[in-house]
Amino acid sequence: LIQVTMNWAQRSVSPTRATVIYAGEPVWAGVVGRIAGERLPALALLGGALIVCGVIVSELRLKRKKAVQPAATPLE
């Protein structure tokens, strides 16, 4: 059910943003697993932290690129 919902929602975002969202899926699985009482090894926690940092950096870059893009000039 979750995968179907994600595939449906992917149509409303750019391919880059969809990739970032899919990259966060293992992180959320780890969070839900931890809430359910499972333990993650230190290496898995480090990997999750790196994914979260990567998502933050990519989102900041996307916002910066949108702010810097000049207005399009009409062709004659």
From TrEMBL:
Cellular localization per UniProt: Cell membrane
Transmembrane segments: 40-57
Primary location group: membrane
Entry keyword set: Cell membrane, Membrane, Transmembrane, Transmembrane helix
All residue ranges annotated as the EamA domain in the record: 3-57
Domain of life of the native organism: Bacteria
Keyword Membrane attached: yes
UniProt-listed SUPFAM superfamilies: Multidrug resistance efflux transporter EmrE
Coiled coil region boundaries: none
InterPro entries for this protein: Diverse_Substrate_Transporter (IPR051258), EamA_dom (IPR000620), EmrE-like (IPR037185)
One GO CC term, this protein: plasma membrane
Membrane-topology annotation of the record: Multi-pass membrane protein
Pfam families registered for this protein in UniProt: EamA
Name this polypeptide is given: EamA family transporter
Native species: Enterobacter agglomerans (Erwinia herbicola)
